[in-house]
Amino acid sequence: LGWKFYDADDYHSLENKKKMAEGIPLNDEDRIPWLCALHDILRREDSSRQDAILACSALKKMYRRVLVSGASAIASNQPEQPGENAALKILFVHLDGPIDIIAARLEKRRGHFMPPELLKSQFDTLEPPSAPENFITVSLEKSLPEIVLEIESAIFQG
């Protein structure tokens, strides 16, 4: 697509990375500043009329609201209304699959701070997207080309 790509893991604080490396799951307090920083990146790209892709484990509905609306989503528990700081238009892609497939992929990953042992805590935290969120669900049991095609189709359909 020629879009900028961001891996949210690159923006975790050293404290968050250390905590995960020690096998300690992150909590909301750990994640909120990270999500706000990611929102700021997306806001900057949007202001520059640049499309971007962010790979991010936005596990909870509240986390996705922060990505869309920034820190104000935490206090109000609602997306911002159109105006000066209008909510970003984000298509969330929920990559869905059985824990064993994801665990096998994590086992193959090298040099990452998050150990595979934390996967269960992520599944325990997960709140799959639902209406009225702007999302698609794509099965991880498909081939990589099928996954990419499904995501691209959803992007181009608006």
TrEMBL record:
Q: What is this protein called?
A: Gluconokinase
Question: Can you name the source organism?
Answer: Chunga burmeisteri
| InterPro entries in the record | P-loop_NTPase (IPR027417), Therm_gnt_kin (IPR006001)
Q: What are the recorded GO MF terms, alphabetically?
A: ATP binding; gluconokinase activity
Recorded hits in SUPFAM superfamilies, A to Z, give: P-loop containing nucleoside triphosphate hydrolases
Q: Which family does it belong to?
A: Belongs to the gluconokinase GntK/GntV family.
Single GO BP term: carbohydrate metabolic process
Q: Which UniProt keywords apply?
A: ATP-binding, Kinase, Nucleotide-binding, Transferase
Reactions it catalyzes: D-gluconate + ATP = 6-phospho-D-gluconate + ADP + H(+)
User: Which pathway?
Assistant: Carbohydrate acid metabolism; D-gluconate degradation
Instruction: Give its E.C. classification number.
Output: 2.7.1.12
| Recorded name of the encoding gene | Idnk
Q: Does the keyword ATP-binding apply?
A: yes
| Enzyme class at the top of the EC tree | transferase
The answer to whether the entry has keyword NAD is no
Name any GO cellular component annotation: cytoplasm
Instruction: Output the superkingdom of the source species.
Output: Eukaryota
